[in-house]
Write a structure and sequence with these properties.
Chain lengths: 111, 121
């Protein structure tokens, strides 16, 4: 079964700066999807960005970009120009036969 | 707007008293999931349906059952809730994605409902 690792339990970033949240995964499958979700304190899970294992370009969605390094099995999320509203839990997930989530990183944006 | 709806948002039950949580979707997705999320932890997949095909995670306790009577609805039944079952229960939906030319498929991004927070007294 695939395993998703997020090594940063908590991260702090200054408002307007960029921050990178780390994610590595372990799978022997060649075909899979990688996702990042944001979970504010209100509890809803918000989809941010998706990367397919065969996509050659790194995914970008507004201020979010995914730094995909297939050989290293890493899928780091980069948030540019952090805003106070970005403070939340961030989960990395991988989808093959099902969806597995990492333990999450709590991001705090400081004014 | 197309969405995933969970009822109720908050559920209180007594130790050992059966409880049912419901989820409905207007996205017409063929896959529906149930997750359990305890405080400060990642969501843990309990089971999912691909159409009517039920897939149970190996470590999901027998105390948890699920029903999907049609495409739009999915239910989570907890037969005898214990104190350790107090958690947020998240329902999600997705569509199966095929990789063109690769002969493989996997699940697309999931859309989550707002969750039901279960308290066991």
């Amino acid at each position: 079964a695939q395993k998703i690792t997020q090594t940063q339990p908590g991260m702090f970033v200054q408002e307007k700066e960029a921050v990178t949240l780390d994610c590595t995964y372990d799978t022997s499958d060649q075909s899979y999807g990688l996702f990042w979700y944001k979970q504010p304190s209100s509890g809803e899970m918000i989809f941010l960005i998706y990367q397919g294992s065969y996509d050659e370009q790194n995914a970008t969605e507004g201020r979010y970009s995914l730094n995909f390094q297939k050989a290293r099995k890493s899928a780091n999320l980069v948030i540019s120009a952090s805003q106070l509203g970005d403070s939340a839990m961030y989960f990395c997930a991988a989808a093959i036969n099902d969806m597995r989530f990492g333990a999450g990183t709590r991001l705090t944006v400081k004014p | 707007d197309a969405m995933v709806i969970q009822n109720p948002r908050y559920q209180v039950t007594q130790f050992g008293k059966p409880v049912t949580l419901s989820c409905s979707q207007t996205l017409n997705h063929n896959v529906m999931y149930w997750y359990q999320q305890k405080s400060s932890q990642a969501p843990k997949l309990l089971f999912h349906y691909y159409d009517k095909d039920f897939n149970n995670e190996a470590d999901t306790p027998d105390n948890f059952q699920s029903r999907r009577p049609n495409t739009s609805f999915c239910f989570l039944d907890i037969r005898s809730p214990g104190l350790g079952d107090a958690a947020m229960y998240l329902c999600a939906t997705s569509r199966l994605r095929s990789n063109p030319g690769q002969g493989s498929s996997f699940y697309n991004e999931q859309f989550f409902g707002p969750g039901t927070r279960l308290t066991v007294l």
